[in-house]
Amino acid sequence: MLTLYHSPISPNSRRVWITLLEKGLEFELVEIELDGEQLKPEFLAINPFHHIPALVDDGFKIIESLAILDYLEAKYPTPAMLPKDAKDLAIARMVQLVTVNELLPATTIFLPQFLGLPGGDPEKIEKAKQKIATVLKFFESLLDDRPYFGSENLTLAEAVAGTVVPLMPIVGISLSEYPKLNAWCDRLIARPTWQATEATAEDIAAFRPIVVARMSQQNSG
């Protein structure tokens, strides 16, 4: 039995959740409250680095979302969520890694704004917007006449980038300059798996005091 330990507010968790749903797998969903539950011995026995998500498959523990996605693709290859062609596979992998290494770190500056909180250094925000624009332009260049990155079918690139890029308008970054990417986002948002895994207003409200407490600790430090 597959068990996913996750938080509904986390894009890292959501990419695994979406993949499990898209592959039609049976799994148990266990929410980890990020107010300290991730530091309890029970969860540290699964992931000693206290991060979510974590996946347990019949006692086998997998951490790090990209490793989890590779595991799911290898063990449950139908439907296939990675292209076979070398160039198309490279496109999918680039989208995954650029999202994790470039886009997601740049969006963290907007977390208070996403949660409806004040804050944010204007200079840091401007630098983040420049980095995000570079990523979005790059992604736009990778899309061709196919509906997904390097594929006619949904891939792990969508599971990863598709949990971050559609959030851009929420923090005031328009996708209007990227018509292919904008249409790609619309396709993803319309999918039942995206709708089923979207963070609710209650999820966001529950996460807000955790962020406020962290911001207070940083400011006092």
Report on the structure:
The protein is globular, with a radius of gyration of 18 Å. Helix 1 packs parallel to helix 3 (65-75) and helix 4 (86-107) packs antiparallel against helix 6 (122-142). It is 53% helix and 8% strand. The mean pLDDT is 92. Strands 2-1-3-4 form a four-stranded mixed sheet, with helices on one face. The protein has two domains: 2-79, 3-Layer(aba) Sandwich (Glutaredoxin), CATH 3.40.30; 86-190, Glutathione S-transferase Yfyf (Class Pi), Chain A, domain 2 (Up-down Bundle), CATH 1.20.1050.10. The chain has helices at residues 11-22, 41-44, 65-75, 86-107, 111-114, 122-142, 156-161, 179-189, 192-197, 201-220, and strands spanning 2-6, 27-31, 54-57, 60-63. The protein has ten helices and four strands. With 221 residues, the protein is of the alpha+beta class. This is Glutathione S-transferase family protein.
List keywords for this structure.
single chain; 221 residues; alpha+beta; Glutaredoxin; Glutathione S-transferase Yfyf (Class Pi), Chain A, domain 2; 2 domains; four-stranded mixed beta sheet; 4 strands
**How many alpha or pi helices?**
10
The major sheet is characterized as: 4 strands, mixed
For this structure, what is the CATH class of the largest domain? Mainly Alpha
Total of domains: 2
Head-to-tail CA distance between termini: 44 Å
Give me the strand/helix succession.
EHEHEEHHHHHHHH
Gyration radius over CA:
18 Å
Mean pLDDT: 92
Strand content: 5-15%
CATH topology of the largest domain: Glutathione S-transferase Yfyf (Class Pi), Chain A, domain 2
Class inferred from helices and paired strands: alpha+beta
Q: Low-confidence segments, ≥5 residues, pLDDT <50?
A: none
Strand order of the largest sheet: 2-1-3-4
Helix content: 40-55%
